[in-house]
C-alpha cells in the first residue's frame, strides 16, 4: 500500500524521491516506549564512536552500538579542532548482521541515535535508506541533547535528548552491546 501511495504522489509531483527517502525523527520518549512495546520487532542502534559513549554515557535500551563514523586519530581537522571522523566502511553489513541476529530483515523498523541527533543520527538513518533499508528513523536530539543558548549553563547539553528526558541511562556501557572491531 505504501508503495502505491508513494507512486501516486510521484506521478502527481507532490513528493520527490528525496522527500520519500528522508528519515523521520522520533522523540527519545517515543523510542523508549517502542523499545518496551515492540523491542523484538525493531532494531535500536547507538551510532556513536564507542570512546564517545565511554565519556558521555549509554542506555541499555539500545540493541547494539554500531558506529556510523569512527574517529581517525591519524587525521586532525584544524578548522574544527578535532580528529576527523570517517564513515565506518562496515556499517551496512554490521546493521544487516544485527538484524539477522534478531530474526529481522531490511523492512524492520531501525532507529539510530547519536549524540545530538543531527550530526550522525539523521545522516546514518538516511544512509541506510539510500542502501535499501525501508523503515529507518532517528532519535531527535540524540542521546545528550542540545546546548543551552543563554544563561548560566550556556553551551552545556542539558536540554532534551535521551539523557535529559528522565529515561534510563548509565555512565557505564554494556560490554555485550558495545562495538569492538
TrEMBL record:
Q: Which residues cross the membrane?
A: none
Which residue windows are coiled coil?
A: none
Keywords assigned by UniProt?
Signal
Rhodanese domain ranges (all copies):
38-155
- InterPro entries reported for this sequence: Rhodanese-like_dom (IPR001763), Rhodanese-like_dom_sf (IPR036873)
Signal sequence, start to end: 1-20
Q: What is this protein called?
A: Rhodanese-like domain-containing protein
Query: Which species is the source of this protein?
Result: Marinobacter persicus
Amino acid at each position: 500500500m505504501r508503495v502505491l501511495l508513494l507512486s501516486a504522489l510521484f506521478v502527481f509531483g507532490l513528493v520527490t524521491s528525496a522527500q520519500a527517502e528522508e528519515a523521520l525523527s522520533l522523540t527519545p520518549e517515543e523510542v523508549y516506549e517502542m523499545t518496551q512495546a515492540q523491542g523484538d520487532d525493531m532494531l535500536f542502534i547507538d551510532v556513536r564512536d564507542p570512546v564517545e559513549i565511554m565519556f558521555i554515557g549509554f542506555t541499555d535500551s539500545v540493541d547494539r552500538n554500531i558506529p556510523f563514523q569512527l574517529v581517525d586519530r591519524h587525521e586532525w581537522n584544524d578548522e574544527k579542532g578535532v580528529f576527523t571522523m570517517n564513515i565506518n566502511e562496515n556499517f551496512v553489513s554490521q546493521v544487516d548482521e544485527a538484524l539477522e541476529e534478531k530474526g529481522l530483515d531490511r523492512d524492520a523498523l531501525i532507529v539510530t541515535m547519536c549524540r545530538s541527533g543531527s550530526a550522525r543520527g539523521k545522516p546514518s538513518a538516511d544512509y541506510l535508506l539510500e542502501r535499501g533499508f525501508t523503515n529507518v528513523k532517528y532519535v531527535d536530539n540524540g542521546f545528550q541533547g542540545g546546548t543551552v543558548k543563554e544563561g548560566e549553563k550556556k553551551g552545556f547539553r542539558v536540554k532534551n535528548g535521551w539523557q535529559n528526558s528522565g529515561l534510563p541511562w548509565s555512565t557505564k556501557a554494556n560490554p555485550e552491546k558495545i562495538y569492538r572491531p
